[in-house]
Every structure is written in structure tokens, then in C-alpha cells.
Amino acid sequence: MTITAYAECHACHTRIVWAVTSDGKRLPPVNWGPDPTGTVAVQHTAGGTWLGRVLGQGDTPPIFPEKRFRWHRETCQAGTGR
Ligand SMILES: [Zn+2]
After folding, report:
1. How confident is the model at residue 5 (pLDDT cuts 50, 70, 90)?
2. Residue boundaries of the structural domains of the chain
3. CA of residue 66 to ligand 1 center, whole Å
4. pTM for the full model?
5. Which terminal CB of the chain, N or C, has fewer other CB atoms within 10 Å?
6. How far is the CA of 59 from the centre of ligand 1 (A)?
7. Pairing mode of beta strands 30-31, 15-17
8. Are 54 and 32 in contact (CB under 8 A)?
9. How many other C-beta atoms are found inside a 10 Å radius of the C-beta of residue 52?
């Protein structure tokens, strides 16, 4: 199954990215651009997938080519995040 990674937030029309976890689960949308305050490590793989890893307490910080991304719900102008 191909997941279209890029989308637009239905509430605020900002570009968002749907990343998936290494075991294929879809994460909540993140903002399109990396953000140093983000709590998700995301990398764009050679196969075109955006692979995401939620950073909890004590988890390994992002390792290149991972970058920090923020959940879109934290910055959504419309406040809903979806
Ligand atoms: Zn939004």
C-alpha cells in the first residue's frame, strides 16, 4: 500500500506530512519542515517513505538523516491539528 505522505491540513491548509513508523503504523501528521523543538524524529527514506520515531524520555536523540519534526497539532493555526 502506498501512503501519500504529503497532505494539507483540512483546518488551516498548511502542508503536513504523514510519517509511518518502522512497523508500518501511521503517525499523526507532522509539520512539513523540521523544527529543533520537535518531539518526533523523521527521515525521508530513499524509497520515498517518511519514517517517524516518537521521541520519549530517554530515547535516542535523532541520528542523521533523522531530523526533529513537530506534531502539526501543536502549531495548527486552526487549533485542531487535522
Ligand atoms: Zn492545521
Report:
1. confident
2. 1-82
3. 23
4. 0.86
5. N
6. 27
7. antiparallel
8. no
9. 23
